[in-house]
């Protein structure tokens, strides 16, 4: 909110007031003036000059009364009317009358839902991180009398109240809470702003955080931290998998403790599976060859390879 915004708000209000001069009143003003002119033309030579002048002035006054006394408010509007500076009531929507000079239609209050965008730039969080936050406020005037009489410019007041409330909320939350807890932040903002605007006849329907911008260096650091966290998790998953595999092997080894023949057969099968691959090289310790009689098995494997079809070699 700045001086330029306040100036534009005043200009919008002035144009809006000018638009509410009822077209019906302008049309009646023209009709009465035409009647006065026709009366003057027709009555020329028939009535004295004094009577003719009174006729014209009277119709002109009637026309002026309709011009300034008749007002029309739109369906969504209420008009605040003062009589000699004192509040006398709300008028509208539709056609209504005021007493010219004595009565004044000072404000046209819009009862539709309004939207106000606000932001907090370079505001420190609870953990001293500067952030820029953009938000949108949805509000509505529920009491036109309070909105006109309790605050000078309720549009500007609402915007300032929302901005200060946003800075207050940011200062009470850490960066992680702001990034992950936008729903709670929206609810807290709505509560604070609504408490401040209720005395002005304004209620807040909802507040929505649009964007949270953090410094680029911090954003890069957070990205690296997230990558490191994912790497740590992947290593933990790999370690847990290795533990499960080792536990499975330990459980399987129990079947070979008291059955060396089964162990030899398993070893021979593993060696055969390794050697049947084209170009495979398997290194077997000499102790394993002696204890498991793998020398004879190697010859068997060689014979099997020679007898294999050529396309498999």
Describe this structure in words.
- Strand 2 and strand 3 form a beta hairpin.
- The longest helix has 38 residues, at 216-253.
- The protein is rod-shaped.
- It folds into four domains: 17-73 and 95-107, no CATH class; 114-214, 2-Layer Sandwich (Tetrahydropterin Synthase, Chain A); 217-258; 259-313, no CATH class.
- The chain has eleven helices and eight strands.
- The strands form three sheets. Strands 3-2-5 form a three-stranded antiparallel β-sheet. It has a three-stranded antiparallel β-sheet with strand order 6-7-8. It has a two-stranded antiparallel sheet with strand order 1-4.
- By secondary structure, the chain is of the alpha+beta class.
- It starts with a helix and ends in a 6-residue tail after the last helix.
What is the CATH first-level class name of the largest domain?
Alpha Beta
Whole-number total of structural domains: 4
Would you list the SSEs in sequence order as H and E? Answer: HHHEEEEEEEHHHHEHHHH
Given the C-alpha coordinates, what overall shape results? rod-shaped
User: What is the C-alpha radius of gyration, as a whole number of Å?
Assistant: 45 Å
Q: State the share of residues found in helices, binned by percent.
A: 55-70%
Please describe the biggest sheet, giving its number of strands, its sense, and whether it closes into a barrel.
Answer: 3 strands, antiparallel
Record the strand order, biggest sheet. Answer: 3-2-5
């Amino acid at each position: 909110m700045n001086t330029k915004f306040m100036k534009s708000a005043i200009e919008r209000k002035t144009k809006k007031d000018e638009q509410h001069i009822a077209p019906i009143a302008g049309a009646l003003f023209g009709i009465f003036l035409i009647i006065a002119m026709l009366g003057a033309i027709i009555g020329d030579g028939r009535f004295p000059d004094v009577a003719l002048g009174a006729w014209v002035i009277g119709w002109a006054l009637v026309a002026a009364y309709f011009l300034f006394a008749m007002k029309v408010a739109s369906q969504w509007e209420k008009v605040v009317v003062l009589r000699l500076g004192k509040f006398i009531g709300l008028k509208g929507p539709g056609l209504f009358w005021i007493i010219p000079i004595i009565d004044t239609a000072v404000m046209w209050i819009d009862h539709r839902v309004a939207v106000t965008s606000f932001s907090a730039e370079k505001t420190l969080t609870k953990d001293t991180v500067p952030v820029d936050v953009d938000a949108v406020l949805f509000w509505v005037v529920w009491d036109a009398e309070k909105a006109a009489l309790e605050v000078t410019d309720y549009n500007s007041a609402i915007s300032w109240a929302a901005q200060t409330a946003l800075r207050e909320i940011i200062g009470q939350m850490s960066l992680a809470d702001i990034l992950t807890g936008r729903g709670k932040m929206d609810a807290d903002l709505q509560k604070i702003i609504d408490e401040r605007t209720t005395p002005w006849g304004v209620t807040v329907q909802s507040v929505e955080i649009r964007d949270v911008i953090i410094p680029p260096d911090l954003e890069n650091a957070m990205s690296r931290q997230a990558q490191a966290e994912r790497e740590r998790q992947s290593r933990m998953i790999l370690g847990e998998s290795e533990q499960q595999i080792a536990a499975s092997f330990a459980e399987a080894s129990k079947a070979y403790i008291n059955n060396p023949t089964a162990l030899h057969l398993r070893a021979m099968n593993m060696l055969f599976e390794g050697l049947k691959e084209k170009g495979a090289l398997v290194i077997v310790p000499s102790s394993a060859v002696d204890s498991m009689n793998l020398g004879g098995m190697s010859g068997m494997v060689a014979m099997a390879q020679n007898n294999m079809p050529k396309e498999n070699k």
